Amino acid sequence: MIVSHGRLVKSDLNYFKVSVKPRRAITIIACDGASDFLKSAGVTPNVIIGDLDSAKPATLKYFSGKNVTIKKVTDQNRNDLEKAIMFALSKNFRVINIIGLSGKRLDHTLNNLSILKKFCRKAKIRIHENGFSGEIISKSAEFACKVGNIVSLIPLPKAVGVSTKGLKYPLKNGTLELGVREGALNEAIEKNFYVKIKQGVLLVLIGSA
Asked: Do both 40 and 122 map to the same domain?
């Protein structure tokens, strides 16, 4: 689990009470200033990573006293989220859940989506925010949901040969492309839906109606 330094509320942490098997430990990686949020929420991360210019010194001192690994990475060509993902991959994590992806600055949000696309073929990357859960896919996938859930398919920036099953407005070998045709605001009509994709990348978002 990566906690990015974006829009964060304590209820975001509830995603991870149901996203892992019972009794399975969660590795929590905090992106720099997100450690302040975790401290206020009473959650201790395993790792804090970034250039460490956002976290309060008192927070770093507090978590250092709890034997949290604090990694300063000063590479200015990568933001803290990318550093966290690269660290997770180096530890052979192949499923990465992320909260706090967006919310503070639009440029950061868009850049973070670009970073997720960069790594989507190296791990299953899931995002959770504001009542929505999502995953970036580059191949066919099946998703569990509830009937009536909002389902949006957002191309990054283009997806070819997209077909769906279990959605109110099905696609059959369609093309989705930013600025041309998106697949937002569809609706699940079954407890599982399927997305087949031949080429490109899609962000699949699932939310309550």
From this structure: yes
pLDDT for 63-98, tens place per residue? 999 999 999 998 878 899 999 999 999 999 989 999
Where in the sequence is the domain holding 177, given as residue range(s)?
136-207
Supply the CATH number for residue 190's domain.
2.60.120.320
Phi, psi of 66 (to 5 degrees): -100, 15
What are the tens digits of pLDDT across the range 40-65?
A: 999 999 999 999 989 999 999 999 99
Distance CA 51, CA 144 (A): 37
pLDDT at 130: 81
Domain boundary among 130, 161, 191: 130
Nearest to 63 by CA among 38, 98, 85: 38
